[in-house]
Amino acid sequence: MKVAIPTNGTSVEDHFGQCQYFAVYTVNDNKEIIHEEIITSPNGCGCKSSIVETLSNSGVKVMLAGNIGGGAVNKLSSYGIAVIRGCSGETKAVLNDWLNGKIKDNGELCQDHEKHNDHEHNHEHNHEHKHQHNHKHGHGFGNN
Description:
CATH class: Alpha Beta
Strand order of the largest sheet: 3-2-1-4-5
Structural class: alpha/beta
CATH architecture: 2-Layer Sandwich
Number of domains: 1
Number of strands: 7
Largest sheet: 5 strands, mixed
Number of helices: 3
Order of helices and strands: EEEHEHEHEE
């Protein structure tokens, strides 16, 4: 089985959408890591790239992630990749904890993913944004 973990080097990247590197581990039936590699996300960060297709084509079946939005979860799921959310810590420790049943999906979706590292992403959402604005409506001619 192949398991992917978004990584910033040695630890789980906090947000899938910011991740450019994925640690991919091949695990045997005895829950032993028999191969590991780093896959670079094509075309930049996770939410704007074709990383899901790349991971699927390499045989990944599970994604152990930190924070991840609903669109990314849906896309991963559509490619047959199960998503376990709420992971944090050193990648191999997270993998071993999951293999030993110590980590379960927390069910939370990231809602705050409009801006990442000072660059914006345009995401479609299936929810409304409601805002209150307190404007003083005058006539535009001084102090009316």
